[in-house]
Design a protein that fits this description.
Elements (H helix, E strand, L loop, with lengths): L6 E5 L2 H14 L4 E6 L5 E2 L4 H5 L10 E3 L1 H8 L2 E4 L1 E7 L4 E6 L5 E5 L2 E4 L3 E3 L10 E2 L4 H10 L6 E5 L3 H12 L3 E5 L11 H13 L3 E3 L4 E4 L3 E4 L4 E3 L2 E4 L3 E3 L2 H5 L23 E3 L6 E2 L6 E2 L4 H15 L13 E5 L2 E7 L2 H7 L4 E5 L14 E7 L6 E8 L3 H14 L23 H13 L8 H9 L3 E4 L3 H4 L8 E2 L17 E4 L4 H11 L6 E3 L3 H16 L1
Parallel strand pairs: 1-2, 1-9, 2-5, 9-20, 11-18, 12-13, 12-18, 13-14, 28-29, 28-30, 30-31
Antiparallel strand pairs: 3-4, 6-7, 7-8, 10-19, 15-16, 16-17, 21-22, 23-24, 24-27, 25-26, 26-27
Helix pairs in contact: 1-8, 6-15
Length: 552
């Protein structure tokens, strides 16, 4: 008897939906696979859209990865753009579809249904909101490009997250005077404040006005009104506040929806209906650190889960893994990346942690072109589980965060980073790679060789009577120092121990290396209350800049 070929209907294309469709075809040549996409484009590089707006990607067609015809030719897929699935009949196992080109509605049966409905940009519900443009689809890109004309001078970007910063930079490339308005007290929420300030400095240095602790409350014809009562000229307004899961189709079908609005799935991406799967930005994920539900709208996660669903449908026993939310963004000349939890979140939840700050070069300093980096590692003080990491720098941040994300996934401890064998040549790294250095510092902390104090803890330590000792050279000290600091350059410290006062001491230098050497000298010379400033005065000043700004 001839076996019935499975019928799989996929709602939504792009990352999750098309990964599921193409993997399913590779696994099952006989399956009938239908993809309904309500927009006009089923496979496009949505992460490249801001760079097309900015003119860095010059050809619009480069954003269009596949077409219905190319997918039919190579994968025998029935892809229908401009088709919107309006409802699901779970009992009949059909979906109701409208063809927007003709207005015709029809029912399509399925054996398995995959929801890849994505997420929608959030636009604030304020007067004039219809003038705020978003950037999520090719159609959004066309509207944004059409709105920019030679007489346009000013733009306001609402939201200072990853997409907001990309949009702001690319509008600068188009010659606009750009203002970012961010409701929170910093840009880039995944970063901690002292790291985010490095990005804010870069943005401001490139002519962008940054307004944090504020929000747009009204959008006029040529301006916006802010919560503080001020106005900003705005020939163009772009909303980049974030996205909300498109889960209304699933909810109307009675599928379980989580507290944060995402579709609830098991570790095989199966919804509360065993015949319906869901992937991508509409779906609730599991956090790798605490196992709690989370929303992570990232393309690589959507691609992985789309592929996994195809494997599940053909009978493979595969399971999705918790997510770490590893992400990176380019901001003018800098890169900013993060994985796992940040210190703000750890402190808010009361989870114990230790933090490491380093400021290495992207490769050997003697080889031309080395650029400074700022790295931060967070780990559990008992188990040394790596809880998160952040990086900001001119280059090389991507591979360092990727190595740490891989180490987290593999269960390596913080001090294990010291023993990783990483590729080295002077134009690519250092013999002691920045990753190794993070491991060395973590090991020193765990073994008691170092007991650093974080920038946000330093003032309380000083107020309690600690004496700051600056171990930089005299000319560096002259450029600025902590109040009341004594300057004893590290190379002179052994000969000047009699100048070191009794009692608690805060040692610092520029980035922490000389400070660590000084703490070891003092610790072995009978001084028992010595702590070093993690990341040196460079990290401290970035953090205090944020503190002063937050305090007004």
């Amino acid at each position: 008897m001839e076996q019935h070929a499975r019928k799989v209907v996929i709602v939504g294309g792009v990352a999750g939906g098309m990964s599921a469709a193409t993997r399913l075809r590779r696994m099952d040549e006989q399956a009938s696979i239908v993809v309904f996409e309500r927009s006009g484009y089923v496979s496009f590089a949505n992460c490249g859209l801001p760079y097309y707006v900015g003119g860095i990607i010059t050809e619009r067609d480069d954003l269009l990865l596949q077409t219905p015809q190319s997918l039919a030719d190579r994968f025998a897929l029935d892809v229908r753009v401009g088709h919107e699935v309006r409802s699901i009949d779970r009992d009949a196992k059909t979906v109701s579809v409208i063809d927007h080109a003709t207005g015709r509605t029809f029912d399509e049966p399925y054996d398995h249904l995959i929801l890849s409905t994505g997420a929608a940009p959030f636009v604030p519900d304020v007067p004039g909101r219809e003038r705020a443009l978003a950037l999520r689809t090719v159609e959004d890109t066309d509207r944004l490009n059409a709105a920019i004309h030679p007489g346009m001078r000013t733009a306001v970007v609402i939201g200072g997250g990853f997409i907001g910063l990309e949009v702001a930079e690319n509008l600068v490339h188009r010659g606009l005077d750009v203002t970012i308005v961010e409701f929170a007290d910093q840009l880039l929420a995944p970063l901690d404040p002292e790291m985010a300030m490095l990005i804010e400095r870069e943005v401001v240095d490139n002519g962008v006005t940054v307004l944090v602790n504020n929000q747009v409350v009204a959008i006029g014809d040529r301006d916006v009104t802010l919560a503080d009562g001020s106005t900003r000229s705005a020939d163009l307004v772009v909303a980049s506040i974030g996205v909300r899961p498109e889960a209304s189709l699933a909810a109307s079908a009675g599928l379980t929806i989580g507290e944060r609005g995402g579709i609830v799935v098991d570790d095989q991406q199966r919804t509360s209906d065993p015949n319906i799967f869901a992937v991508g930005d509409a779906v609730q994920k599991i956090d790798a650190i605490d196992g709690a539900p989370t929303m992570v709208p990232l393309a690589n996660v959507a691609n992985r889960h789309g592929r996994l669903v195809a494997d599940v449908i053909v009978g493979r026993d595969v399971r999705s893994k918790p997510v770490q939310a590893t992400a990176i963004v380019g901001v003018f000349r800098l890169q900013a990346a993060a994985t796992g939890w940040n210190e703000k979140r750890l402190r808010a939840t009361g989870r114990p942690y230790r933090a490491v700050h380093t400021h290495p070069a992207s490769h050997a300093r003697y080889y031309p072109g080395a650029q400074d980096m700022s790295l931060k590692l967070l780990f559990d003080p008992e188990t040394e589980q790596i809880l998160g990491a952040q990086g900001v720098g001119g280059e090389g941040i991507d591979k360092r965060i990727d190595v740490i994300a891989t180490a987290m996934k593999s269960g390596l401890r913080a001090s294990d980073l010291a023993d990783l064998e990483l590729a080295y040549a002077p134009q690519f790294g250092s013999a002691k790679d920045p990753i190794n250095m993070l491991g060395f510092v973590a090991e020193n902390i765990q073994t008691g060789l170092n007991n650093p104090i974080q920038w946000h803890e330093a003032q309380a330590y000083l107020d309690a009577g600690a004496t700051p000792i600056d171990v930089r050279a005299a000319d560096e000290f002259a450029t600025g120092q902590l109040p009341g600091a004594i300057n004893i350059p590290v190379d002179e410290l052994r000969a000047r121990l009699d100048e070191v006062p009794d009692g608690p001491i805060l040692i610092y230098c520029l980035v922490g290396i000389r400070g660590h050497i000084a703490t070891r000298i003092l610790a072995q010379s009978g001084f028992t209350q010595v702590r070093g400033l993690a990341g040196g005065i460079q990290t401290y000043l970035a953090g205090m800049e944020w503190e002063r700004r937050r305090a007004g």
